Amino acid sequence: MYRLSEKQIEEILIEDLDLIEPGLRLLRNQYRTHHEGCKFQTNLYGHHTGCRGTIDILCLDQRNNLVVIEIKLNANSNVISQINKYPQFLKHNFPLYQGEFRKILCCINSAKEVEVLCNQNNIRFIQLNSKILKYSKPQTNLCLNELQFIESHTLFKEFLLSYS
Questions:
Q1: Cα dist from 103 to 49, 54, 88, 121, whole Å
Q2: Which of 17, 19, 83, 135 is most buried, taking the most CB atoms under 10 A from its CB?
Q3: How confident is the model at residue 35 (pLDDT cuts 50, 70, 90)?
Q4: What is the spatial distance between Cα 51 and Cα 48, in angstroms, rounded to a whole number?
Q5: What pTM does this model have?
Q6: Beta bridge partners of 127
Q7: Which domains are present in the chain?
């Protein structure tokens, strides 16, 4: 049986963000969040770990709120802390941004408690249908086609100039 990878799901969703929510506009995908000055997270031993991680998809919604989208094949409770750290990083790096920070988890399978934890942490939970995604193969092997890259790069550049 053919099984999609997280990367393939990301490519499918980027090509049609309306599958997640109408009106989403791509800023970046695979946006790395680590930098030395960000010390919001600590590990089990109390050591600062910074805001390391990679935002799968970073978008603006119809009201120009930042939307962090995390994609998982099999989501468990650990994903909640992963998603929750990204708005802290974004607030730190875009101090002039005054909009909301929204969080969305898109997954194929999840542990029973994940949806409840998402609701408790103001994370929108979307259970993806792998059968539908299987027939929505990306048109290219690249994550973004040339036009999408130019549009998202321009939008992200405008965002950086406005809020950094």
A1: 21, 14, 12, 9
A2: 83
A3: low
A4: 9
A5: 0.79
A6: 107
A7: 6-163 (3.40.1350.10)
The pair of three-digit structure tokens given for residue 34, joined into one six-digit string: 């680590």
Q: Which residue has the tokens 């929510």?
A: 21
Structure tokens at 154: 């321009």
Question: Which of the residue ranges 29-33, 50-54, 138-142 would you say has the lowest mean pLDDT?
Answer: 138-142
**Rounded Cα gap, residues 73 and 99, in angstroms:** 30
| CA-based nearest residue to 142, from 14, 6, 28 | 14
Extract the tokens encoding 69.
């989208």
CB of 83 closer than 8 Å to CB of 123: yes
The chain-wide mean pLDDT, for the chain, equals 79
Taking each helix axis from N to C end, the angle separating 112-120 and 78-93, rounded to the nearest 10 degrees, works out to 30
User: What integer is the mean pLDDT of 3-19?
Assistant: 88
146, containing H or E segment: helix 146-163
- In angstroms, the CA 52 to CA 45 distance is 16
Give the Cα separation of 132 and 49 in Å (integer). 38
DSSP string across 2-67? ----HHHHHHHHHHTGGGT-TT-EEEEEEEE---TT----B-TTS-B-TT--EEEEEEE-TT--EE
